[in-house]
Amino acid sequence: MSEVVRVLVVDDEALVRHALRAFVAADDRVTLVGEATDGSEVVEACKASNPDVVLIDIKMPEVCGVEATRRILEWNPRCRVVALTTFTTEWRALQVLRAGACGYLVKNSTPDQIIDAVVAAHAGDRVVSPDVQKRFVRAAIEAGGQQRTDAPALSDRERQIVDLIAKGLSNAGIAEALRYSEGTVKADIRHINHLWSVENRLQIVLRATELGIVSL
């Protein structure tokens, strides 16, 4: 049986914390170990609860999620941080991702998408909401000048994986959709990275868009 992921929720809105508490309680892959209402409280909350993943808002009254992310990772570099916010602009996402977060979700995500992202983060995966991912890719294409139209061909299964990455699915979600093991999906993604000389999911989607494999 897989390890249950310990989750700390940080959000200044009581209604959001209540909803997240319910989402976590409904899924046996995760357990809620603590809550905080502002980034100023987060390190003490982490010390008290020792979470695997911190699910954090960006806009908070005293210490924002970006600075709180830096503080969390200074406390424990192995802790994973997933931002959950109303913002869909790519520069907001870049702020918190550069601070060390490994996920960025918008608050209209479904409960399954949120919990999948938490589990994926704990496993070392990176998940970005499809709407934000599209903005990243479009901005990169607009700024990048001439597009590349050549790259080694992918297998049918690898093309399916690229399409599902573009839709924002985690490794676990891709494995479920294609009925393969998560280990197989990870190996295929590593092979795609090697073939296309890219390093992460956003770069995979960018290259696939340039090649016409996916359309955003």
TrEMBL record:
Keyword Oxidoreductase listed: no
Domain Response regulatory: 6-122
CDD domains: LuxR_C_like, REC_NarL-like
Domain HTH luxR-type: residue ranges: 147-212
Keyword terms, alphabetized: DNA-binding, Phosphoprotein
Keyword Metal-binding: no
Residues found modified as 4-aspartylphosphate: 57
Family matches, as InterPro entries: CheY-like_superfamily, NreC/VraR/RcsB-like_REC, Sig_transdc_resp-reg_C-effctor, Sig_transdc_resp-reg_receiver, Tscrpt_reg_LuxR_C, WalR-like
Pfam families to which the protein is assigned, alphabetical: GerE, Response_reg
Protein's name in the database: Response regulator
Species name: Luethyella okanaganae
